[in-house]
Amino acid sequence: MKKVRDYMEKLSAVPSISGFEDRFSELVISMIKNKVDTVGRDTVGNVVATKKRCGSDGLKLMFAAHLDQIGLMITKIEENGILRFTGIGGINPLTLYGKRVRVFGKEDIYGIIGMKPPHITSKEESQRVIPVHELFIDIGCQSGDEASRFVSIGDTVVPDYYSDSLLSDNFSTSGLDNRAGVLTVISFIDLLEPLHNFHEVIFLFTVQEEVGLRGAKVGGYSMEADVAIVCDVTFGDPVGNLTEIATGKGPVIQKGPNYYPPLVKKICDIARCEDIPFQEEVEGRPGGTDAYYLQITKRGIYTAGISIPLRYMHSPVEVVNLKDVYRASKLMMHLAMENDLISGS
Prior knowledge:
Elements: H1 2-12, H2 22-32, E1 38-41, E2 47-51, E3 60-66, E4 71-77, E5 83-88, E6 100-104, E7 108-113, H3 123-126, E8 137-138, H4 144-148, E9 156-159, E10 164-165, E11 170-173, H5 176-192, E12 200-206, H6 214-223, E13 227-230, E14 233-235, E15 252-255, H7 261-273, E16 279-282, H8 291-294, E17 302-310, E18 318-321, H9 322-337
């Protein structure tokens, strides 16, 4: 667990805004390159690694997690020096009011998302959710010319955040959607390194999931896996959650038309056999994860989903339980060693 926590702290220090994942990708490569047989990046920026199989008739077994997180981008520098911006991915404007931000301009600088004081805000204005395009960033400049010395249109921004260990093995930071999935696959690679896996294992860390599952389209097409296990996050909020999924009770095995039933059953059976706590969640239609495209790539891929319960999704204070991450990585290890993964096909 200490190694999982240390990895999480390292991953949390590097931003990975959708379409601008390069720094984070290099970090991931540095963390796995000595534990796999091959690793590299494809044309769109996906990180692809492999570990050779020992079984003569093993499958091509893919484990996928997306690298990117939601963020912001500068769209305009006003004459008075304030910066206008737009969202990259599913931004909730309520999470931005009055926040400090990091702007990745000509150098990394701080700014704040300002608001009108309540003293001069009308009742109607105070009850209205201000859309992202009406918000602004103040970096302390007095003119557009001054601001342009530090920032350009197209520069990216993330809300500043803290990475904190909470009680009971919970961890809070920004971008756990999908740092939690990336961490799970990296932890799985650690567990698999000394073992002789039956199947050829492909580790696909995809880009631009938050803006249309774009990396999965390319990575799935080029790697031609037989089986794909997608590791993302799912809702585990303590209040207002429509399901009973909760952090700390184990990873979530997805069920629904996006997932191949015999493979899902095999994963559940292995979890029970290995005494790995897990939860189950039904998705009545293909959802918004990389599984959506991997399932229907080329001739089709037998697909399943192992998700990490997450509190406060798409906010700067997301929370996961590190035990869920480790349990998911152990489950993946056992899948890589299982000879008969898709019986019933």
